[in-house]
Amino acid sequence: MPLKPKTIEKLYWTIGEMAEELGVNNSTIRFWEKEFGMSAARRTGKGDRLYTRKEIEQFKRIQQLVKEEGYTLNGARAQLRKGDETEGQPIMVEQLRERLLQMRRTLVALRTDLERG
Questions:
Q1: Domain locations along the chain
Q2: What is the pLDDT of residue 63?
Q3: Among residues 2, 38, 74, 110, which is most buried (max CB within 10 A)?
Q4: What class, spelled out in words, does domain 1-86 have in CATH?
Q5: pLDDT per residue over 53-87, tens digit each?
Q6: Is the pTM of this model over 0.70?
Q7: Which residue in 12, 6, 110, 92 sits closest to 55, CA to CA?
């Protein structure tokens, strides 16, 4: 049986690689970094910026809001904050639902015990 080829994903991308992937100039990336309070956590020995896949996804979201959906920079900031606030909610709703179901089962069991009682 033939071996599957290994696919190794890069851990870091340069500003030029990210700008090319997004179809914007390097200066646009630096501008968005400043405007949205983002900074590349890693730099090379020469001081060049390095970006992770997660950071690239954040910049893609900014690009979508500003370039495709037509948000102003302030509007895009608000949308990003709004997204951060609601990110964990689906898990919370499911946890709440499970807790309510457990409470209901407990109450039904108590009522049954009282009726027998």
A1: 1-86, 88-117
A2: 93
A3: 38
A4: mainly alpha
A5: 888 889 999 999 999 889 999 998 888 888 755 55
A6: no
A7: 12
